[in-house]
Amino acid sequence: MLKLFIGNKAYSSWSMRGWLAVKQSGMDFEEIVVPLYDEDWNKRREGDEFAPSSGKVPILWDGDVVVWDSLAIIDYLADQVGREKFWPEDNAARAMARSMSAEMHSSFANLRREHSMNVRKRFPPRELSEGTTHDVMRIVQLWAEARARFGGTGPYLFGDYGAADIMFAPVITRFITYSIPVPRFAHPYMEAVMAHQHVKAWLEGAYAEPWVIEKFEAPVEG
Fold it and tell me: 90, 106, 99, 92: which is closest to 163 by C-alpha?
């Protein structure tokens, strides 16, 4: 059985991506939540099971095989169960889905820094920084292009739910948490992702967690 180490479901966006990927694979797995930043956090990160990732989550073990980094976890699982579980069949759509997922993986630093994930909170709207505004505009531009070119009759970016939706799911929770305005066309897509059974299961787990990290319980002052 797979073993997946993740951080708090309320706060850990990368853990959410890794967890959604394993759920999408359909493979059985053991979930181990490691509370972030508590008094035992540094000690746990020094353990052998975290050594390959230098203490970061998520980290996936499949017997003696270890995979860390959410996008690498997606690719590893696609190798195990078939890429059609994660990526579009059409070559052009698949290329765009992979490019979007990679951009999500490496970009949007302002949004990440200024709007930490906390799926249990709802903050009133506030003025966005220039950098975050640019990030939001780029994200919805990508969504619009994917939906227009490859969305078809399905509700997700490339019609069927897949890796690109997994990579952007935590962004959607941020948009909701911080009441970030997005164009009207984006609302049905965001609603579809939030209604997906795996995303709903993650959120239910987040609300059931006992841990509270105070620094993520209020908006970042700008």
Answer: 99
Question: CB atoms < 10 A from the CB of 103, how many?
Answer: 14
pLDDT in tens, 6-36: 999 999 999 999 999 999 999 999 999 988 7
Q: Is 5 exposed, middle or buried (0-12, 13-18, 19+ CB in 10 A)?
A: buried
Q: Is the peptide bond before 210 cis (omega within 30 degrees of 0)?
A: no
Is the pLDDT at 51 greater than 90, yes or no? Answer: no
From 36-40, 123-127, 141-145, 216-220, the region with the lowest mean pLDDT: 36-40
Q: How far, in Å, CA of 68 to CA of 192, rounded?
A: 28
User: Which stretch of DSSP H or E encloses residue 76?
Assistant: helix 70-81
Instruction: Decide: pTM greater than 0.90.
Output: yes
Q: List C-alpha distances in Å: 37 to 6, 12, 16, 46, 194.
A: 13, 12, 17, 13, 27
Q: Closest Cα partner for 13 from 115, 136, 126?
A: 115
Cα separation, 164 vs 212, whole angstroms: 29
Please name the helix (run of DSSP H) or strand (run of DSSP E) that holds residue 13, with its range, or none. helix 13-25
- Rounded CA separation 211/166 (Å): 24
